[in-house]
Amino acid sequence: MDIQYVDRRGTDCNKWDGQQNMFGEEGLHAMWVADMDFKVADCVQEALHKYVDLGVFGYMRVPDSYYQACIDWEYENHGYKMEKEWIRFSPGVVSAFNWIIQFMTEKGDAVIVTTPVYYPFLHAVTNNERKLVTSDLINDHGNYSIDFLDFEKKIIENNVKLFILCSPHNPVGRVWKKEELRQLLDICKKHHVFVISDEIHQDLVYGKNEHVPSLLAGDYEDMMIMIIAPSKTFNLAGAQNSEVIIPNQTLRDKWDKYVKGIRVLGGNAFGYIAAEAAYRGGKEWLEQVKKQIQDNYQYLKDTFAERLPDAVVSPLEGTYLTWIDLSAYVAGSDMREFMQKKCRMAVDYGAWFGGDRFSGFIRINLATSLDNVKTGVEAICSNLV
After folding, report:
1. Residue 244 and residue 152: Cα distance in Å, rounded?
2. Phi/psi at 232 (5° precision)
């Protein structure tokens, strides 16, 4: 099975056609928002075609086979055995962690994140009128680790109520080891900090790295909700389907009460059908995608090492997003001007992930063709050398 690159320009996709809102202009070479430029697995298209050909799009009863496909995937690929009763629906991971913040904390409560981190985490805290607390990861020449002492210190000083964990970590590409997760989560348990674990990139892990579901790392079921989804794994973001995993009955009751209040009790048929088909038949497609991402990363890393030796490219243990420190070449205050006006590229700016101290960084999406990666890499290198 060969994956197929699709030129998405002119298809109303946000990545290529919706740049005005984030960049103030259109027509940039798109290497930003985290979706893929690859056609989905054949099994997904076939399942959706079958449903469309039926020609009736009424209310859908979610079949047991969907839940079983999700359960089987998680167990076979990550060793975590879920039960159907634990699984709840959200249209996306971002919706889910915003909702959990609302029903697990009060306005003014402190919420901690480990920065640099996926910027909707930051927005979820501030938009819901909670106090944002940040604990920076330790950066050792692009290799990131958790500053456990600072993390615990910030929790105590700010009376933190909730932690949003990113595992694997976006944007730095870390796949946390079980020992790291246990140390982090034990600190939260000690100080009665509730944990939301965003594990949307769980299937995008490379080499000898192994994703450990946070609920499998120890006894944390009464203090954690874990969120997974097929959207990053199988390029199904537009289908709007994610799974919220809640083993604890008390926490399930809180979730159920909240979603009844906002009347979001299930998703659309297309999302369920696409997800089930992908979980059942998408493994071979995923392996091909991961190989392409690794090839793209290696090209970028090797080219930068040769032409921009002072650029720091973080190791890609997981996700398809590479984190690059260009501060040796471009001042943070000049990064937007450099990337858009000189390179004509749309990338995610480092400052978005936690503030100006990250303004010398960019995040690049590698889930595209090698030719697209070459175009972006050449634009950066040729404007700096």
Report:
1. 27
2. -75, -45
pLDDT digits (tens, 9 = 90+) for 295-342: 999 999 999 999 999 999 999 999 999 999 999 999 999 999 999 999
Size (the chain), residues = 385
The whole-angstrom separation of Cα 42 and Cα 20 is: 33
- Could you tell me the two tokens for 108? 């003014």
Confidence band, pLDDT 50/70/90 cuts, at residue 385: confident
Domain range list for the chain: 14-40+284-382, 47-281
- Name 375's Cβ contacts closer than 8 Å, sequence gap at least 6: 29
CA 189, CA 222: separation in Å to the nearest integer?
10
Cα–Cα distance for residue pair 22/16, rounded to 1 Å: 12
Residue pLDDT, tens place only, 153-193: 999 999 999 999 999 999 999 999 999 999 999 999 999 99
Which of these, 247, 142, 135, 228, lies nearest to 184 by C-alpha position? 135
The reported pLDDT for the residue numbered 25 is: 97
pLDDT tens for each residue of 32-91: 999 999 999 999 999 999 999 999 999 999 999 999 999 999 999 999 999 999 999 999
Write the CB contacts of 368 (distance below 8 Å, at least 6 apart in sequence): 5, 31, 36, 37, 38, 296
Coil, strand, or helix at residue 349? strand
Q: Which residues contact 281 (CB under 8 A, 6 or more apart)?
A: 41, 42, 43, 44
Burial (CB < 10 A; 0-12, 13-18, 19+), residue 24, is exposed
Residues 6+ apart with CB under 8 A from 3: 38, 39, 285, 288, 289, 292
Q: How many CB atoms lie within 10 A of CB 385?
A: 8
**CATH code for the part of the protein at 14-40+284-382:** 3.90.1150.10
Q: Decide if domain 47-281 falls under CATH 3.40.640.10.
A: yes
What is the reported pTM?
0.97
